[in-house]
């Protein structure tokens, strides 16, 4: 049963309500990218290949039609650098025109495009140079941003340079450990932590410090190029918000733990036009570090604790770190589940926690659900986050009840207040 929202919180004019995807996860056959190479490498640790994904490279008009018809007014998608520049210095004019058409298509359907330049994947040639550890990485990314400016110039208001740089820095460490294990180093073990697309659990390793610095340089270099092309463009980046909760006596440990994994990236956004919050669950921190998910906790298909209040806590934390002059867009929030009633219940409570933060003065300009489609979740199609189901053989799209429910909220211009009673397995928002 779809929950009643009562009067709810009336959203401010211009508030974005929509959904998100990323190119590699929905387009299919991203053959010039480093992730494609990783997936298809003999003996790869990646369990499942992306293949055709949701074939959105060809079916994006249908995807946008559905989002518009459902009542949404925004769509976040990414430009694939590996398609735009498949070989160093070679720009595919066909790919540029493809993404320009996507921007125009979104605007024609009444969808505000929120466009990401880098969503985890890079051209294979870039990674072979050393990726973000290459001394040229910031300049190469800025050059790509100059090409992307042609696409954004079709009418984009919001652009994100890099998706979840904290996860990119963490993945660099994880991949380095994986390479060492493959070389027979028995002392190399690693966990990880992620509140976004890749299914990592809390771990003791840190994001690579060199990659962190390189990503911040690349973000600033690309931002400068984009601003020079269009001073009115609103530029930011998106962070995987971990919602670190200190157990009693662990406040200092939690602060030290959080800084290299999240806060350093938030601090780098203090001069940006906006910051993207991406929140799914929480991570509890004890005096000795991260704690496992409680054995009795309800969990998602990715093994994350079901904790919808993470969204409100993430936007409050982000606002404290970046300051009051940087508005927030929720660029990802959702749940990996095959139970669509649970998706509605989770999102109801998540939005209620967001409404509470907004009522307390946090400047939030939009909510973009992850994800628009059931898609490729970095090694597996099993975790279904989508508002719209996709048949893996025919690619037929079928909106779920959650899509119609969330679309109705977008049409009404309001989001739920804290529910009187939460469904089983979902906490009520305070």
TrEMBL record:
Location of region: Disordered: 182-203
Keyword terms of this UniProt record: Glycosidase, Hydrolase
Gene3D superfamilies per the UniProt record, alphabetical: Glycosidases (3.20.20.80)
Annotated Pfam families: Glyco_hydro_1
Active-site residues from the entry: 332
Gene Ontology molecular function, alphabetical: beta-glucosidase activity
E.C. code: 3.2.1.21
Coiled coil regions in record: none
An annotated GO BP: carbohydrate catabolic process
Top EC class of this enzyme: hydrolase
Gene Ontology cellular component list: cytosol
Cited SUPFAM superfamilies: (Trans)glycosidases
Signal sequence region: none
Family statement: Belongs to the glycosyl hydrolase 1 family.
Protein's name according to its UniProt entry: beta-glucosidase
Organism expressing this protein natively: Streptomyces jeddahensis
Gene for this chain: bglA_3
């Amino acid at each position: 049963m779809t929950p009643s929202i009562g009067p709810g919180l009336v959203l401010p004019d211009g508030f974005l309500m929509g959904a998100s995807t990323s190119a590699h996860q929905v387009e299919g056959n991203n053959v010039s990218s480093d992730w494609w190479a990783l997936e298809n490498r003999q003996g790869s640790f990646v369990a499942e290949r992306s293949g055709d994904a949701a074939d959105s490279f060809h079916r994006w008009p249908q995807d946008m039609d559905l989002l518009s018809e459902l009542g949404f007014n925004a769509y976040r998608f990414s430009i694939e650098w590996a398609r735009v520049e498949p070989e160093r210095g070679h720009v595919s004019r066909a790919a540029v025109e493809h993404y320009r058409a996507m921007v125009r298509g979104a605007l024609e359907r009444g969808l505000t495009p929120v466009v990401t330049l880098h969503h985890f994947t890079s051209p294979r040639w870039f990674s072979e140079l050393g990726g973000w550890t290459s001394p040229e990485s910031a300049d190469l990314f800025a050059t790509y941003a100059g090409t992307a400016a042609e696409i954004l110039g079709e009418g984009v208001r919001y652009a994100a340079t890099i998706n979840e740089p904290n996860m990119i820095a963490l993945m660099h460490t994880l991949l380095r450990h994986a390479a060492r294990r493959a070389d027979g180093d028995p002392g190399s073990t690693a966990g990880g932590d992620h509140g976004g697309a890749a299914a990592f659990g809390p771990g003791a390793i840190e994001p690579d410090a060199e990659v962190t610095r390189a990503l911040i340089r690349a973000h600033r270099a690309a931002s400068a190029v984009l601003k020079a092309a269009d001073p009115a463009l609103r530029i930011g980046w998106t962070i995987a918000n971990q919602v670190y909760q200190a157990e009693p006596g662990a406040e200092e440990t939690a602060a030290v733990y959080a800084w290299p994994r999240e806060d350093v990236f938030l601090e780098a956004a203090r001069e940006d036009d906006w910051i993207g919050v991406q929140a799914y669950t929480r991570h509890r921190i004890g005096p000795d570090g991260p704690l496992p998910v409680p054995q009795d906790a309800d969990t998602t298909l990715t093994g994350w604790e079901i904790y919808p209040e993470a969204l409100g806590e993430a936007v409050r934390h982000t606002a404290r770190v970046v300051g009051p002059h940087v508005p927030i867009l929720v660029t990802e929030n959702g749940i990996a589940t095959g139970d669509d009633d649970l998706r509605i219940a989770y999102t109801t409570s998540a939005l209620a926690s967001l409404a509470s933060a907004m009522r307390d003065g946090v400047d939030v300009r939009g909510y973009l659900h992850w994800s628009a489609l059931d898609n490729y979740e970095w090694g597996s199609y099993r975790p279904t986050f989508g508002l719209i189901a996709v048949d893996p053989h025919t690619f037929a799209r079928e909106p779920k009840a959650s899509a119609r429910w969330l679309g109705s909220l977008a049409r009404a211009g309001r989001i739920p207040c804290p529910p009187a009673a939460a469904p089983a397995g979902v906490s009520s928002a305070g």
